[in-house]
Protein backbone atom coordinates (compact mmCIF):
# COMPACT_ATOMS: atom_id res chain seq x y z
CA UNK A 1 0.00 0.00 0.00
CA UNK A 2 1.13 3.54 -0.80
CA UNK A 3 2.18 5.75 2.09
CA UNK A 4 -0.03 8.63 3.13
CA UNK A 5 1.16 12.02 1.81
CA UNK A 6 3.34 13.67 4.50
CA UNK A 7 1.76 17.12 4.00
CA UNK A 8 -1.66 18.68 4.55
CA UNK A 9 -3.43 21.55 2.86
CA UNK A 10 -2.45 24.84 4.49
CA UNK A 11 0.86 23.51 5.81
CA UNK A 12 4.02 25.64 5.43
CA UNK A 13 7.04 23.75 4.10
CA UNK A 14 10.65 24.58 3.40
CA UNK A 15 11.85 23.07 0.12
CA UNK A 16 14.91 22.90 -2.08
CA UNK A 17 13.89 23.14 -5.70
CA UNK A 18 15.76 20.68 -7.92
CA UNK A 19 14.01 20.85 -11.30
CA UNK A 20 11.05 22.23 -13.24
CA UNK A 21 7.99 20.29 -14.35
CA UNK A 22 6.40 20.59 -17.80
CA UNK A 23 4.34 23.57 -16.77
CA UNK A 24 7.47 25.43 -15.66
CA UNK A 25 6.69 24.92 -11.95
CA UNK A 26 9.55 24.28 -9.51
CA UNK A 27 9.79 20.72 -8.20
CA UNK A 28 10.92 19.97 -4.65
CA UNK A 29 10.63 17.04 -2.26
CA UNK A 30 9.31 16.97 1.27
CA UNK A 31 10.20 13.71 3.05
CA UNK A 32 10.54 12.17 -0.43
CA UNK A 33 7.11 13.45 -1.53
CA UNK A 34 6.92 15.60 -4.70
CA UNK A 35 5.70 19.17 -4.33
CA UNK A 36 5.20 21.57 -7.25
CA UNK A 37 5.81 25.25 -6.56
CA UNK A 38 4.91 27.73 -9.33
CA UNK A 39 7.38 30.66 -9.57
CA UNK A 40 10.21 28.71 -7.93
CA UNK A 41 13.32 27.72 -9.92
CA UNK A 42 15.99 25.01 -9.55
CA UNK A 43 18.60 26.11 -7.03
CA UNK A 44 16.12 28.07 -4.90
CA UNK A 45 15.33 27.21 -1.30
CA UNK A 46 11.82 28.44 -0.59
CA UNK A 47 9.05 28.68 1.93
CA UNK A 48 5.80 27.51 0.41
CA UNK A 49 2.23 26.92 1.54
CA UNK A 50 0.48 23.74 0.42
CA UNK A 51 -2.77 24.45 -1.47
CA UNK A 52 -3.72 20.98 -2.71
CA UNK A 53 -2.68 17.40 -2.02
CA UNK A 54 -3.05 14.47 -4.42
CA UNK A 55 -1.95 10.84 -3.96
CA UNK A 56 1.50 11.27 -5.46
CA UNK A 57 2.15 15.00 -5.37
CA UNK A 58 1.06 18.30 -3.83
CA UNK A 59 1.05 21.88 -5.06
CA UNK A 60 2.25 24.78 -2.90
CA UNK A 61 2.39 28.55 -3.37
CA UNK A 62 5.66 30.39 -3.00
CA UNK A 63 5.69 32.45 0.21
CA UNK A 64 9.31 33.58 0.28
CA UNK A 65 12.66 32.73 -1.31
CA UNK A 66 15.14 31.81 1.45
CA UNK A 67 18.14 31.39 -0.86
CA UNK A 68 17.90 32.42 -4.45
CA UNK A 69 19.10 30.39 -7.44
CA UNK A 70 21.73 32.02 -9.69
CA UNK A 71 19.31 31.51 -12.60
CA UNK A 72 16.56 33.53 -10.90
CA UNK A 73 16.01 37.05 -12.19
CA UNK A 74 13.58 39.83 -11.33
CA UNK A 75 10.66 39.77 -13.80
CA UNK A 76 10.46 42.91 -15.91
CA UNK A 77 6.68 42.96 -15.70
CA UNK A 78 4.93 44.56 -12.73
CA UNK A 79 2.03 42.09 -13.13
CA UNK A 80 4.25 38.94 -13.20
CA UNK A 81 3.38 37.85 -9.66
CA UNK A 82 -0.40 37.81 -10.31
CA UNK A 83 -0.77 37.38 -14.06
CA UNK A 84 -1.53 33.92 -15.46
CA UNK A 85 -0.11 34.85 -18.88
CA UNK A 86 3.63 34.19 -18.33
CA UNK A 87 5.01 31.37 -16.16
CA UNK A 88 8.77 31.82 -16.56
CA UNK A 89 9.64 35.50 -16.37
CA UNK A 90 11.66 34.92 -13.22
CA UNK A 91 13.98 32.48 -15.05
CA UNK A 92 16.95 33.57 -17.22
CA UNK A 93 16.05 33.28 -20.89
CA UNK A 94 18.91 30.82 -21.63
CA UNK A 95 17.52 28.57 -18.89
CA UNK A 96 14.01 28.80 -20.36
CA UNK A 97 15.41 27.50 -23.65
CA UNK A 98 17.17 24.60 -21.91
CA UNK A 99 13.98 23.80 -20.00
CA UNK A 100 12.00 23.58 -23.24
CA UNK A 101 14.58 21.30 -24.83
CA UNK A 102 14.36 19.04 -21.75
CA UNK A 103 10.56 19.06 -21.77
CA UNK A 104 10.55 17.82 -25.39
CA UNK A 105 13.28 15.26 -24.84
CA UNK A 106 11.75 13.85 -21.61
CA UNK A 107 8.22 13.73 -23.00
CA UNK A 108 9.25 11.93 -26.19
CA UNK A 109 11.01 9.28 -24.08
CA UNK A 110 8.41 8.98 -21.34
CA UNK A 111 5.24 8.89 -23.44
CA UNK A 112 6.50 7.69 -26.82
CA UNK A 113 9.55 5.63 -25.87
CA UNK A 114 11.32 7.71 -28.51
CA UNK A 115 14.99 8.49 -28.08
CA UNK A 116 16.12 10.80 -30.88
CA UNK A 117 18.36 13.86 -30.95
CA UNK A 118 16.44 16.84 -29.60
CA UNK A 119 18.35 19.92 -30.71
CA UNK A 120 18.87 23.05 -28.62
CA UNK A 121 15.75 25.25 -28.64
CA UNK A 122 15.90 27.98 -31.26
CA UNK A 123 15.29 31.13 -29.22
CA UNK A 124 14.84 34.82 -29.91
CA UNK A 125 17.59 37.42 -29.76
CA UNK A 126 15.19 39.84 -28.16
CA UNK A 127 12.43 37.79 -26.49
CA UNK A 128 10.11 40.73 -25.73
CA UNK A 129 7.24 42.46 -27.52
CA UNK A 130 6.95 39.45 -29.80
CA UNK A 131 3.18 38.86 -29.93
CA UNK A 132 1.06 40.12 -32.82
CA UNK A 133 -2.25 39.29 -31.13
CA UNK A 134 -3.84 40.34 -27.85
CA UNK A 135 -7.06 38.71 -26.77
CA UNK A 136 -8.18 39.91 -23.35
CA UNK A 137 -11.35 39.58 -21.27
CA UNK A 138 -13.30 42.65 -20.16
CA UNK A 139 -15.05 43.00 -16.81
CA UNK A 140 -16.27 45.47 -14.22
CA UNK A 141 -14.73 46.01 -10.78
CA UNK A 142 -16.38 48.57 -8.44
CA UNK A 143 -17.80 50.48 -11.38
CA UNK A 144 -14.50 50.56 -13.28
CA UNK A 145 -13.99 48.72 -16.56
CA UNK A 146 -11.06 46.31 -16.50
CA UNK A 147 -9.35 44.69 -19.45
CA UNK A 148 -6.40 42.37 -19.16
CA UNK A 149 -5.35 38.85 -18.33
CA UNK A 150 -6.89 36.54 -15.79
CA UNK A 151 -5.09 36.23 -12.50
CA UNK A 152 -3.42 32.89 -11.90
CA UNK A 153 -5.94 30.16 -10.96
CA UNK A 154 -8.90 32.53 -11.22
CA UNK A 155 -11.15 34.52 -13.52
CA UNK A 156 -10.43 37.83 -11.79
CA UNK A 157 -9.21 40.27 -14.41
CA UNK A 158 -5.93 42.11 -13.92
CA UNK A 159 -6.21 45.61 -15.31
CA UNK A 160 -3.24 45.44 -17.63
CA UNK A 161 -1.11 48.55 -17.82
CA UNK A 162 1.50 47.13 -20.15
CA UNK A 163 2.27 43.65 -21.44
CA UNK A 164 5.96 43.21 -22.24
CA UNK A 165 5.44 40.31 -24.63
CA UNK A 166 2.86 42.21 -26.68
CA UNK A 167 3.34 44.53 -29.65
CA UNK A 168 2.85 48.04 -28.16
CA UNK A 169 0.08 48.76 -30.67
CA UNK A 170 -1.97 45.91 -29.16
CA UNK A 171 -1.49 47.35 -25.67
CA UNK A 172 -2.71 50.63 -27.03
CA UNK A 173 -5.87 49.03 -28.50
CA UNK A 174 -6.68 47.34 -25.18
CA UNK A 175 -6.34 50.59 -23.23
CA UNK A 176 -8.20 52.63 -25.77
CA UNK A 177 -11.18 50.29 -26.03
CA UNK A 178 -11.34 49.98 -22.26
CA UNK A 179 -11.35 53.77 -21.83
CA UNK A 180 -14.00 54.21 -24.51
CA UNK A 181 -16.25 51.59 -22.88
CA UNK A 182 -15.82 53.33 -19.54
CA UNK A 183 -16.40 56.81 -20.86
CA UNK A 184 -19.46 55.91 -22.97
CA UNK A 185 -20.84 53.54 -20.29
CA UNK A 186 -21.15 50.67 -22.75
CA UNK A 187 -22.23 47.65 -20.68
CA UNK A 188 -19.55 45.02 -20.14
CA UNK A 189 -20.01 41.30 -19.68
CA UNK A 190 -20.55 39.73 -16.26
CA UNK A 191 -19.25 36.24 -16.71
CA UNK A 192 -20.82 34.67 -13.63
CA UNK A 193 -24.34 35.76 -14.58
CA UNK A 194 -23.75 35.45 -18.35
CA UNK A 195 -25.21 38.96 -18.68
CA UNK A 196 -23.92 42.26 -20.00
CA UNK A 197 -22.35 42.92 -23.37
CA UNK A 198 -18.66 43.41 -24.20
CA UNK A 199 -16.73 40.25 -23.28
CA UNK A 200 -13.37 40.40 -25.04
CA UNK A 201 -11.13 42.78 -26.92
CA UNK A 202 -9.03 41.30 -29.68
CA UNK A 203 -6.23 43.23 -31.35
CA UNK A 204 -4.00 42.05 -34.17
CA UNK A 205 -1.03 44.04 -35.38
CA UNK A 206 1.16 43.18 -38.33
CA UNK A 207 4.89 43.56 -37.64
CA UNK A 208 5.52 44.12 -41.35
CA UNK A 209 2.64 46.22 -42.68
CA UNK A 210 1.87 47.74 -39.24
CA UNK A 211 -1.85 47.44 -39.90
CA UNK A 212 -4.06 47.02 -36.84
CA UNK A 213 -7.30 45.05 -36.77
CA UNK A 214 -9.66 45.32 -33.80
CA UNK A 215 -12.44 42.93 -32.84
CA UNK A 216 -14.93 43.66 -30.07
CA UNK A 217 -16.58 40.47 -28.88
CA UNK A 218 -20.14 40.96 -27.63
CA UNK A 219 -22.77 38.85 -25.93
CA UNK A 220 -25.51 40.04 -28.32
CA UNK A 221 -25.99 41.99 -31.54
CA UNK A 222 -26.80 45.49 -30.27
CA UNK A 223 -23.81 47.65 -29.52
CA UNK A 224 -24.98 50.91 -27.89
CA UNK A 225 -23.18 54.07 -29.05
CA UNK A 226 -21.68 52.10 -31.92
CA UNK A 227 -20.89 55.18 -34.01
CA UNK A 228 -19.09 56.93 -31.15
CA UNK A 229 -17.09 53.80 -30.34
CA UNK A 230 -16.00 53.48 -33.97
CA UNK A 231 -15.20 57.17 -34.37
CA UNK A 232 -13.13 57.32 -31.19
CA UNK A 233 -11.17 54.22 -32.16
CA UNK A 234 -10.57 55.67 -35.60
CA UNK A 235 -9.23 58.84 -34.01
CA UNK A 236 -6.92 57.09 -31.55
CA UNK A 237 -5.49 53.98 -33.26
CA UNK A 238 -2.81 54.64 -35.88
CA UNK A 239 -2.89 52.35 -38.97
CA UNK A 240 -6.29 50.94 -38.08
CA UNK A 241 -7.40 48.85 -41.08
CA UNK A 242 -10.68 47.55 -39.68
CA UNK A 243 -13.00 47.05 -36.74
CA UNK A 244 -15.26 44.04 -36.44
CA UNK A 245 -17.89 43.12 -33.92
CA UNK A 246 -17.81 39.41 -33.20
CA UNK A 247 -20.97 38.03 -31.63
CA UNK A 248 -20.62 35.27 -29.08
CA UNK A 249 -23.69 34.59 -26.93
CA UNK A 250 -22.56 31.18 -25.70
CA UNK A 251 -21.53 30.45 -22.11
CA UNK A 252 -18.02 29.20 -21.47
CA UNK A 253 -14.43 29.90 -22.38
CA UNK A 254 -14.60 29.94 -26.19
CA UNK A 255 -13.72 33.51 -27.07
CA UNK A 256 -15.01 34.03 -30.59
CA UNK A 257 -18.48 33.38 -31.98
CA UNK A 258 -19.31 32.57 -35.60
CA UNK A 259 -21.13 35.75 -36.52
CA UNK A 260 -19.21 38.88 -37.41
CA UNK A 261 -20.18 42.42 -38.43
CA UNK A 262 -17.70 44.80 -40.03
CA UNK A 263 -18.00 48.18 -38.29
CA UNK A 264 -15.18 49.93 -40.14
CA UNK A 265 -12.77 49.22 -43.02
CA UNK A 266 -12.12 45.58 -43.85
CA UNK A 267 -12.42 42.49 -41.65
CA UNK A 268 -8.83 41.33 -42.30
CA UNK A 269 -5.33 42.71 -42.12
CA UNK A 270 -2.43 42.44 -44.52
CA UNK A 271 0.51 40.44 -43.23
CA UNK A 272 3.85 39.43 -44.72
CA UNK A 273 6.05 36.44 -43.95
CA UNK A 274 9.30 36.05 -45.91
CA UNK A 275 8.35 37.33 -49.35
CA UNK A 276 4.77 36.07 -49.13
CA UNK A 277 1.70 38.21 -48.48
CA UNK A 278 -1.25 37.05 -46.41
CA UNK A 279 -4.75 38.19 -45.57
CA UNK A 280 -5.60 37.35 -41.98
CA UNK A 281 -9.16 37.71 -40.73
CA UNK A 282 -10.05 38.03 -37.06
CA UNK A 283 -11.34 34.48 -36.78
CA UNK A 284 -8.53 32.68 -38.65
CA UNK A 285 -5.61 31.09 -36.90
CA UNK A 286 -2.30 32.87 -37.46
CA UNK A 287 0.90 32.15 -35.52
CA UNK A 288 1.29 34.77 -32.77
CA UNK A 289 5.06 35.25 -33.01
CA UNK A 290 5.85 36.35 -36.57
CA UNK A 291 9.67 36.41 -36.23
CA UNK A 292 9.81 32.87 -34.88
CA UNK A 293 7.18 31.69 -37.35
CA UNK A 294 9.69 32.20 -40.13
CA UNK A 295 12.27 30.23 -38.14
CA UNK A 296 9.73 27.44 -37.63
CA UNK A 297 8.57 27.33 -41.25
CA UNK A 298 12.14 27.39 -42.58
CA UNK A 299 12.92 24.40 -40.40
CA UNK A 300 9.81 22.60 -41.71
CA UNK A 301 10.91 23.46 -45.25
CA UNK A 302 14.42 22.15 -44.57
CA UNK A 303 13.03 18.86 -43.22
CA UNK A 304 10.65 18.57 -46.19
CA UNK A 305 13.81 18.62 -48.38
CA UNK A 306 11.95 19.34 -51.60
CA UNK A 307 13.48 19.08 -55.07
CA UNK A 308 10.55 20.57 -56.98
CA UNK A 309 8.92 17.37 -58.22
CA UNK A 310 6.98 16.42 -55.08
CA UNK A 311 3.34 16.43 -54.14
CA UNK A 312 3.11 17.75 -50.58
CA UNK A 313 0.17 17.57 -48.18
CA UNK A 314 -0.12 20.39 -45.63
CA UNK A 315 -2.63 19.19 -43.05
CA UNK A 316 -4.21 21.57 -40.53
CA UNK A 317 -3.08 24.31 -42.90
CA UNK A 318 -4.92 27.32 -41.40
CA UNK A 319 -4.74 30.22 -43.86
CA UNK A 320 -2.23 28.29 -45.99
CA UNK A 321 0.97 29.79 -44.59
CA UNK A 322 3.10 26.61 -44.59
CA UNK A 323 1.43 25.50 -47.84
CA UNK A 324 2.56 28.62 -49.66
CA UNK A 325 6.06 28.43 -48.15
CA UNK A 326 6.28 24.91 -49.60
CA UNK A 327 4.51 25.57 -52.91
CA UNK A 328 7.42 27.36 -54.54
CA UNK A 329 9.67 24.36 -53.94
CA UNK A 330 7.17 21.61 -54.81
CA UNK A 331 5.21 20.43 -57.85
CA UNK A 332 1.92 20.60 -55.98
CA UNK A 333 0.60 21.36 -52.50
CA UNK A 334 -2.67 20.07 -51.08
CA UNK A 335 -3.87 21.90 -47.95
CA UNK A 336 -6.60 20.64 -45.61
CA UNK A 337 -8.23 22.72 -42.89
CA UNK A 338 -11.46 22.41 -40.90
CA UNK A 339 -12.36 26.13 -40.51
CA UNK A 340 -14.09 27.40 -43.62
CA UNK A 341 -13.05 31.06 -43.12
CA UNK A 342 -9.41 29.99 -42.96
CA UNK A 343 -9.71 27.95 -46.19
CA UNK A 344 -11.25 31.01 -47.81
CA UNK A 345 -8.22 33.05 -46.65
CA UNK A 346 -5.86 30.30 -47.89
CA UNK A 347 -7.30 30.39 -51.43
CA UNK A 348 -7.18 34.17 -51.41
CA UNK A 349 -3.57 34.05 -50.21
CA UNK A 350 -2.58 31.69 -53.03
CA UNK A 351 -4.10 34.21 -55.48
CA UNK A 352 -2.47 37.21 -53.84
CA UNK A 353 0.93 35.54 -54.23
CA UNK A 354 0.17 34.25 -57.72
CA UNK A 355 0.68 30.66 -56.61
CA UNK A 356 -1.13 28.24 -58.92
CA UNK A 357 0.04 24.87 -57.64
CA UNK A 358 -1.78 24.88 -54.28
CA UNK A 359 -5.30 23.56 -53.70
CA UNK A 360 -7.26 23.68 -50.45
CA UNK A 361 -9.94 21.40 -49.04
CA UNK A 362 -12.37 22.19 -46.22
CA UNK A 363 -13.04 19.54 -43.58
CA UNK A 364 -11.26 17.65 -40.87
CA UNK A 365 -7.99 16.07 -41.94
CA UNK A 366 -9.24 12.69 -40.65
CA UNK A 367 -12.20 12.70 -43.08
CA UNK A 368 -10.75 14.61 -46.06
CA UNK A 369 -7.40 12.79 -46.37
CA UNK A 370 -8.90 9.25 -46.47
CA UNK A 371 -11.33 10.50 -49.14
CA UNK A 372 -8.55 12.06 -51.25
CA UNK A 373 -6.49 8.88 -50.89
CA UNK A 374 -9.43 6.82 -52.19
CA UNK A 375 -9.73 9.22 -55.12
CA UNK A 376 -6.13 8.41 -56.08
CA UNK A 377 -4.20 11.30 -54.53
CA UNK A 378 -0.69 10.47 -53.40
CA UNK A 379 1.86 12.39 -51.31
CA UNK A 380 5.66 12.39 -51.35
CA UNK A 381 5.89 14.56 -48.25
CA UNK A 382 3.23 15.17 -45.57
CA UNK A 383 3.36 18.10 -43.16
CA UNK A 384 1.00 18.08 -40.17
CA UNK A 385 0.49 20.98 -37.72
CA UNK A 386 -2.42 19.92 -35.48
CA UNK A 387 -3.87 21.74 -32.47
CA UNK A 388 -2.94 20.63 -28.94
CA UNK A 389 -4.91 17.39 -29.06
CA UNK A 390 -2.71 16.06 -31.87
CA UNK A 391 -3.75 13.92 -34.86
CA UNK A 392 -6.67 11.53 -35.07
CA UNK A 393 -5.46 7.94 -35.39
CA UNK A 394 -7.52 7.49 -38.54
CA UNK A 395 -5.51 10.25 -40.16
CA UNK A 396 -2.19 8.74 -39.05
CA UNK A 397 -3.26 5.36 -40.46
CA UNK A 398 -4.12 6.95 -43.81
CA UNK A 399 -0.83 8.85 -43.95
CA UNK A 400 1.05 5.60 -43.28
CA UNK A 401 -0.96 3.88 -46.05
CA UNK A 402 -0.09 6.68 -48.48
CA UNK A 403 3.58 5.90 -47.90
CA UNK A 404 5.13 9.36 -48.28
CA UNK A 405 8.96 9.49 -48.16
CA UNK A 406 8.96 11.97 -45.31
CA UNK A 407 6.61 13.32 -42.67
CA UNK A 408 7.24 16.68 -41.01
CA UNK A 409 5.33 16.97 -37.74
CA UNK A 410 4.89 20.50 -36.31
CA UNK A 411 3.52 20.34 -32.77
CA UNK A 412 2.51 22.72 -29.99
CA UNK A 413 2.09 19.91 -27.45
CA UNK A 414 4.96 17.49 -26.73
CA UNK A 415 2.63 14.93 -25.10
CA UNK A 416 0.40 14.34 -28.13
CA UNK A 417 3.47 14.61 -30.38
CA UNK A 418 5.07 11.73 -28.46
CA UNK A 419 1.89 9.63 -28.73
CA UNK A 420 1.59 10.23 -32.49
CA UNK A 421 5.29 9.61 -33.17
CA UNK A 422 4.99 6.29 -31.38
CA UNK A 423 2.11 5.30 -33.66
CA UNK A 424 4.00 6.36 -36.78
CA UNK A 425 7.11 4.53 -35.62
CA UNK A 426 5.07 1.35 -35.27
CA UNK A 427 3.61 1.93 -38.73
CA UNK A 428 6.60 2.37 -40.99
CA UNK A 429 8.30 5.66 -40.04
CA UNK A 430 11.53 6.43 -38.17
CA UNK A 431 11.55 9.67 -36.19
CA UNK A 432 14.94 11.21 -37.02
CA UNK A 433 15.35 14.50 -35.19
CA UNK A 434 13.37 17.04 -33.17
CA UNK A 435 13.87 20.80 -33.22
CA UNK A 436 12.16 22.83 -30.48
CA UNK A 437 11.45 26.44 -31.46
CA UNK A 438 10.63 29.10 -28.87
CA UNK A 439 7.45 30.68 -30.18
CA UNK A 440 6.30 31.76 -26.71
CA UNK A 441 9.17 33.19 -24.61
CA UNK A 442 8.45 33.53 -20.85
CA UNK A 443 5.63 31.00 -21.02
CA UNK A 444 6.00 27.25 -20.54
CA UNK A 445 4.72 26.50 -24.06
CA UNK A 446 7.00 24.99 -26.67
CA UNK A 447 6.69 24.32 -30.39
CA UNK A 448 8.54 21.39 -31.96
CA UNK A 449 9.29 20.26 -35.52
CA UNK A 450 10.11 16.59 -36.08
CA UNK A 451 11.37 14.86 -39.20
CA UNK A 452 10.26 11.27 -39.87
CA UNK A 453 11.47 9.10 -42.75
CA UNK A 454 9.95 5.98 -44.25
CA UNK A 455 11.67 2.80 -43.03
N1 LIG B 1 -0.41 25.40 -40.11
C1 LIG B 1 -1.13 26.59 -39.78
C2 LIG B 1 -2.21 26.39 -38.74
C3 LIG B 1 -1.86 25.59 -37.53
S1 LIG B 1 -3.00 25.68 -36.18
C4 LIG B 1 -0.19 27.70 -39.38
O1 LIG B 1 0.99 27.47 -39.14
O2 LIG B 1 -0.63 28.84 -39.33
C5 LIG B 1 -4.00 24.29 -36.39
C6 LIG B 1 -5.08 24.47 -37.43
O3 LIG B 1 -5.80 23.24 -37.50
C7 LIG B 1 -6.12 25.54 -37.13
O4 LIG B 1 -6.25 26.37 -38.26
C8 LIG B 1 -7.43 24.75 -36.89
O5 LIG B 1 -8.56 25.42 -37.36
C9 LIG B 1 -7.17 23.50 -37.68
N2 LIG B 1 -7.86 22.26 -37.26
C10 LIG B 1 -8.23 21.88 -36.02
N3 LIG B 1 -8.70 20.61 -36.03
C11 LIG B 1 -8.61 20.17 -37.32
C12 LIG B 1 -8.93 18.92 -37.97
N4 LIG B 1 -9.41 17.89 -37.28
N5 LIG B 1 -8.69 18.83 -39.30
C13 LIG B 1 -8.18 19.88 -39.98
N6 LIG B 1 -7.88 21.07 -39.43
C14 LIG B 1 -8.09 21.22 -38.11
Automatic annotation (TrEMBL):
SUPFAM superfamilies: Nucleic acid-binding proteins, S-adenosyl-L-methionine-dependent methyltransferases. Keywords: Methyltransferase, S-adenosyl-L-methionine, Transferase. The keyword Methyltransferase applies. It holds the Pfam family tRNA_U5-meth_tr. Gene3D superfamilies: 2.40.50.1070, Nucleic acid-binding proteins, Vaccinia Virus protein VP39. Residues 6-64 form the TRAM domain. S-adenosyl-L-methionine binds at residues 287, 316, 337, 385. The active site is at 412 (nucleophile), 412. The keyword Transport does not apply. Transmembrane segments: none annotated. This is RNA methyltransferase, TrmA family. It comes from Dethiobacter alkaliphilus AHT 1.
Amino acid sequence: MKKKPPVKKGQQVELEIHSLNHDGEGVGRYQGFTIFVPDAVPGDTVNAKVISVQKSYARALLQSVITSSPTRIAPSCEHAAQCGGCQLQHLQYEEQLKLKQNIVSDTLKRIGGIDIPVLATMGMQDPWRYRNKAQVPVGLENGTVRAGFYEKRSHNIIDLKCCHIQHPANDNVVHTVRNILQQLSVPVYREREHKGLVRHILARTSFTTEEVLVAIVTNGRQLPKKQEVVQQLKDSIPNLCGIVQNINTRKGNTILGNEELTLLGRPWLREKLGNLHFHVSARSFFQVNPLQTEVLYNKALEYANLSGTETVFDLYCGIGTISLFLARKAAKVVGVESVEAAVHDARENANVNNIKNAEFHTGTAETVVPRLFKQGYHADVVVVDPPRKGCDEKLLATIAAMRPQRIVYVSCNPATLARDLKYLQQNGYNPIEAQPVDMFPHTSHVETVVLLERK
